[in-house]
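Input sequence (526 aa), recorded before submission:
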Amino acid sequence: MAGIDQTSEPGSDTRIPEASKAVLEALRAENRAAAARLRACYALLDICDDVEFQRAIDAGYDPMGEEPQDYALIDPFDIACAEIVAAYGVHTHRARALIRLSITLVDNFPALLEAMESGRLDEDTAKMLARQMRVVEPRFRSAVQKAVADWLLGAIDAGQRPGRDRILGQTDRIIEESDPDGVLARRRRAITERNVQVRRSSDGMAQLHAYLTSAEAAALYEALQMSARDQIKKEKDSRGESTRYVDAGVCDNSSGRRIGERRADALVDAILGPGQGADPGSAPEPERLAGERLAGETPRAQLRPHITVLTELGPGGEPAVYMPRGGPATIDALMELLSRCVGATISVPDPTPGSADSRTAARRYRISAELARRIRLRDGTCRHPGCSVPADDCDVDHVRPFNHSDSGSGGLTVEFNLMCLCRRHHRFKTFHGWRYQLARDGTLTVTTSTGHTLATEPDGPLARWRQRPDEGASSDAGPPRPWLSPEPKPTYWFQRMQRQVAARRENIAARRVPEPGDPGYDPPPF
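Predicted structure, token format:
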């Protein structure tokens, strides 16, 4: 091969060793920089704590007397996070993680931080070790962390490259030697940290994350795997095909669905009741989707979702659908959900800014449910710079404070004076010295006490709908709304939804739902 000396001895090329040395030096520099960053974060928190304490003293707080009034204080942790977001541009979650880790290492595990400062321990490994040693009693903590750091760095110097499991296993052995109850205490505490969370994703999807005991997780996974395999076997048996090769990576060729998709369907079926799954390629008829499932099965969870349908067209040419917490969804996903519900509220909002405002309500402090929902649809998340708490978990706050003594002098309860703030940032705005200004298009401008000017734009479905440039309409008027006109265009998707609702009504009637006037009558909300 041209350009290569094929007579060279293996390893005689010095470029790889030189490049490896450069990588090593860069990694060690990164470790030292990470340690310096954590110490700086800790110093910032310490200063914020001093400043806030002095502010409390100036406000009349007596540290030797009763506890301070809760409304007079802001957590210095929140101030430090906000300053990092303002100065550096990271999101709030990252800023909080940095400060938490700085507190953990500086206060509890200085030996790990010193190993980082030497360049020999990376931040991720230090975080992993700190979590593994988090419940070691303080009297043993110094000796345990030093023994762990010495073992790991010594092993690396000796040419060993222990993997994650080996590192954690050896750490537990060191803990057991000094604090036999430490590992058991950590495991008992871990059980209390079980949780299930949902995070919005793209393409009409979301991530459902479950933190369970290993036994529970293994049992659930095996149950889902068995359910998926049984379903594939039944379908293949009905076609007279072989099921010999049904395994974790094998497709069901009839629909191209992998067993992972089947596991997801089995999970939904187990909680919401049997259904056909969310196979986008099956395109089931609306009547079958609603009729066959509901006729034979009662949903296990009595769902009554609130679904917002926008007339903006999605990638497939259908109207956009917005689900609380789940975010944007497809029409197929909507139909799948409706087939499992006992009722649903479907709303088509007016996109015109201020359409939910009224002269009377503007002078009232309490925000109507319609207006609050509208603000959440517009904002999408907490509007504070760097924060991404879903709007459904936020307070709806007046940007310019409502004047309770003179409701007409400012701070009106109208759309262009309301925004979503999570409870933490709601308190921050109320009691800290930053200034907030909301434009009529929903853009929020924040001026910090340190001189930074920050801006956030609304990212909810209503805001994205208004920003569509191809409709040729102003932001004040909003895009054309064919579903709200006297004679809506009978698109395929519109007709499909109408058939879906009609089929649901027929099946509800077939179940002999109590009639008006009967005891326990609960009319469908749509």
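Checked by second reader. Confidence is low (pLDDT under 50) at residues 245-254, 276-299, 469-494, 519-526.
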